[in-house]
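[Meeting: bench + compute handoff]

Bench side (C.D.) handed over the final construct sequence. Compute side (W.E.) agreed to return the predicted structure before the next meeting so the bench team could plan truncations. Sequence as handed over:
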Amino acid sequence: MKTKPRVVVGLSGGVDSSVAAKLLIDQGYEVIGMFMKNWHDESVTISNECPWLEDSTDAMLVAETLNIPFQAIDLSAEYQKRIVDYMFAEYSAGRTPNPDILCNREIKFDIFLKAALQLKADFVATGHYCQKGTIEVDGNPVHKLLAGADANKDQSYFLCQLSQEQLAKALFPIGHLQKSQVRIIAKQAGLVTAEKKDSQGLCFIGKVRLPDFLQQQLKPKQGNIIQIPEDFSDYQLHQLPASKAPQDWSQAELDSICIPLAYLPSQGKVIGEHRGAHYFTVGQRKGLQVGGTGKPLFVIATDTQQNVIFTGLGEEHPGLNRYGLFVKTDQIHWIRKDLQLQVGTHAVYSARIRYRQALSKATLIQRENGLYVFFEKAQKGIAAGQFVAWYEGEECIGSGTID
């Protein structure tokens, strides 16, 4: 008979998950360490190094030091299908995916969680810098996804697609700590990962040079770089409706602010060439290789069908800075389903469209066709395929894929 609750910890070979396992042991849980192997496709080179080999060894050494059972699980087939194929499909369609958010939803808290449940685990735990709270609504437990105590490391945005069912089984043992405290605990416990640098790049894979990675599947294709002038006439048609709150805007007014403009090559001038529109994302500045512009040049739109990149000059270009975005109905995700907006209603939250971005006040307006999000301050580089997440204070309430 099981006396202690059993937790499977996703040991990544990094310091955060190592300390998560150590803290759970101290709290009296029965802990099993499990390393996820997410990549071994030799036909696509992720990196010149082989980080997962080193990481799996470090994870095993941590398990030995902590005296807990350890196993590796090969999730590479699912990772290929759910994450890598998704990335290629999104980039080829001219969208900007976020594989880390998908990895949490589809791999760590789905495939990995199911593997843990087969080991009769009560919970899975990760080294994420976020916290979980539980309240009661109408007599039922409702789980809250809360920001990590370390504001510089808060990773709640990466978990913004988790469901109540996934949160119910999740533990985040280091979410109340600062990164510096985590390293001290690791050192005191004699863990080999105590001073190991934080990993960069794709989750559980390691560092990736994205352009190199994309070029292995998405072949170079020469096309034009078009510069759209700052005084482009369509920008005048998309001014904020005067003296009306966003929730009172007409459908046409909402669309004009929240649906991105579709540009035509004839609306600007050719200023250079590129090697493939699918390699570029909205808001990107590097890699355009166009000189003599004075101000920095930014990507404001891409058309992968016509293989054209549209750019704007300067940080204040109206094509770069937008006040609104749109999320289709089937792409809206409420962590707190009890707070879900009904058609015709609105709410004011704080929102962000990328990790570590400061939260900005936003009005969410639910219409039949989807969710309109209007920011109080213009947001730079809103790109289709990104995730917008909205918060009430420290709590992430929901998220959606930007159209």
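W.E. noted at the follow-up: The chain has a mean pLDDT of 93. C.D. will use this when planning the next construct.
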